[in-house]
Amino acid sequence: MKVLFVASECAPFIKTGGLADVIGALPKALAAAGTDVKVLIPAYPALQGLAGGGPTVKVLDDLFGGKAEVRAVHAEGLDVLLLVAPHLYDRNGNIYLGPDGQDWPDNHLRFAALCYAGAELAFDGADGWMPDVVNVHDWQAGLLPAYLSQSGRTSPPVVMTIHNIAFQGLFDASELANLRLKAEMFAADAVEYYGKISFLKAGLALSDRIAAVSPSYACELLTPGFGMGLEGLLRERRSDLIGILNGIDIATWDPESDPHLVENYSARSLRRKRANKREVEARFGLQRRDGPLFCVVSRLTSQKGLDMLLDCLPGLVAEGASLAVLGSGDGALERQFAEASSRHPGQVGVTLGYDEPLSHLLQGGSDAILIPSRFEPCGLTQLYGLRYGTLPVVARTGGLADTIIDANEAALAAACATGFQFAPINATMLEQAIARACAIYRRPRSWSAMVRRAMRQPVGWDASAAAYDAMYRSLIAD
Ligand code: ADP
Ligand code: GLC
C-alpha cells in the first residue's frame, strides 16, 4: 500500500510543534508494517540543501505565481517529496510568520500551493509511484480534497488528520478564484465557513475519513466547547471520525542513547538521571532544593494554560520545588515568565526561545513536567516525560487524559499511577496537583516506583500505526 502524506512540517527537518514530530515518526512506523509512505512538504530554506540532491518528479509551470517542481529525496529514514517553489517558501524565519510576527500575507497561496501540488501527485503520481491513499494533516493541507473533488477526475481516497482544530486557515471569500477554487466550492458542505473560506473545513467536509489525534479529542470535538464551530459538521460525519492516539519516535527519544543528555540512563540505572538534573540546574541558574524539579517545554499560548502556572509559583516555591521553563510564543506570557524568574531567583529559571537539544535535556533532567493545557488534542511532551521518567502533571483533557493515570489513592494502591491529573482545569486544581506531586516526591520509594512504571509505558507508534494502516486498508477496500 502506498500513502501520500501532505503536511507543512516534518521533524527533524522543520518543526514548530508536535505536528512535525508526528509527520517525522508515523511514516517510519507504517513502513515497518510494510506500508510505503512519501511525505510532501514545502522546501523552506532549511530544506533547500536536501532538495538539491534529489531528482525532479514533477514540474508545475505556474504554481500560484511562479514555476515549481517536486524533488524526491530520501533522508533521515523518510521518503520526502519537496515542493520547491522559491516565490512561496524561500523566506527566512518562521515558516508561518513574517518578521513582524504576523502571518505571511500570502499564507493562503503558500498552503493552497502545497494542496494543489499534492492533488497533482494524487492524480498522476510521482515518477510511476501512485498513492493508494492520501493523508492530509491540519489546515495547511486541507484544500487538497477540494481540488480533487472539483476536478471530477478519479482520485485516491483521502484521510484528514486533525491535530488542532483551533487553527482553521480562514481567508476572505474574495480569494476564491485566486485559490483556483470553482464557485461551487463556496458552499456549506465544502469550503464555506461563516462567509469565509476555511481550509480546515474543506478537509473535514470533503475527505473520506477523519482522524483526530486521540480518542478523547475525537469525542470532545463533537461538543461546542471544543469543536470551535465545526462540531455540527463533525457530528454529521461522526461515523467517519476516529480517534487514534499519537505515539512518539522511541529511537529519537530514548534516555539510553539520547545525545543531548549529559548521562544516559534507563529504568535500571535511574541514579544516572541525576547528572542531567545537575546540568539543568546549572543551565537555568537553579539552586539544589529538597523538592522536585518541574519543567515546562511548550509553546506559550493560551491553549497551554501556562498563565495558570504563573499563579501557582509562590505555592510551588514554598513546597521546596523548583521550575525550569523553556518556551516561546505570546509576548505577554514571555514577559511574565521572565519576571517570575527575577522574582524567584534560583527557584524559577526561564529560557525563552525554541531549542530542540535543550528540550531533550529538560526531559532527561527534570523530575516532573507540567502541562496544564486548556485543551490538548494529543500532546507529546507528556509521552516524552513518561519515556524519560519525568512524571507528567497534566490537565484532564484530550490526549493528556488518555495517556496519564492519576496518582489517586486507588491508582497508587493498584500500582498503576503514572502521573498527576487535575480537573476542573483551573489554577487552584493545578496548585493542588503540584502539591500532590511534591508530597509523593517526599516518599522516594513511591516516587521511584512511579518513575519506573512511567518508563515502561508503551508510548511508541506500534498500536496507532496499525490503526492508521487498518483505516487506509478499509478505504481501499470500499
Ligand atoms: P503542540 O504541537 O501543541 O505544540 P505537542 O506536545 O504535541 O504540542 O508538541 C510540542 C513539540 O514541540 C514537542 O516535541 C516539544 O518538545 C516541542 N517544543 C515545544 N516548545 C519547544 C521549545 N521552546 N523548544 C524546543 N522544543 C519545543
Ligand atoms: C497539535 C496539538 C497537539 C498534538 C500535535 C500532534 O499541535 O496541539 O496536542 O500533540 O498537534 O498531533
CATH topology title of the largest domain: Rossmann fold
Q: Name the shape in a single word.
A: globular
What is the CATH C level class of the largest domain, in words? Alpha Beta
Q: Report the helical percentage.
A: 25-40%
Beta-strand content estimate: 15-25%
Structural class: alpha/beta
Please identify, by name, the CATH architecture of the largest domain. 3-Layer(aba) Sandwich
CATH superfamily of the largest domain: Glycogen Phosphorylase B
Distinct compounds present: adenosine-5'-diphosphate, alpha-D-glucopyranose
Number of strands: 18
Largest sheet, spatial ordering of strands: 3-4-5-2-1-6-7-11-12
Oligomer: single chain
Low-pLDDT windows of residues: none
What is the count of helical runs? 19
- Number of domain units: 2
How much is the radius of gyration in Å?
Answer: 23 Å
Q: How would you sum up the major sheet?
A: 9 strands, mixed
Q: Estimate the mean pLDDT confidence.
A: 97
Please specify the SSE layout and strand pairing.
Blueprint: E1 2-6, H1 18-32, E2 36-42, H2 45-52, E3 56-60, E4 68-75, E5 78-84, H3 86-89, H4 107-124, E6 133-137, H5 144-151, E7 158-162, E8 170-171, E9 192-193, E10 196-198, H6 199-206, E11 209-212, H7 215-220, H8 224-227, H9 231-236, E12 241-243, H10 273-283, E13 293-300, H11 306-318, E14 322-329, H12 331-343, E15 348-352, H13 356-365, E16 368-371, H14 381-387, E17 391-395, H15 398-403, H16 409-413, E18 420-422, H17 427-441, H18 444-456, H19 462-477
Parallel strand pairs: 1-2, 1-6, 2-5, 6-7, 7-11, 11-12, 13-14, 13-16, 14-15, 16-17, 17-18
Antiparallel strand pairs: 3-4, 4-5, 8-10, 9-10
Helix pairs in contact: 1-19, 4-5, 10-13, 11-12, 11-17
Residues 17-19, 22, 163-164, 213, 246, 376-380, 399 line the site of alpha-D-glucopyranose.
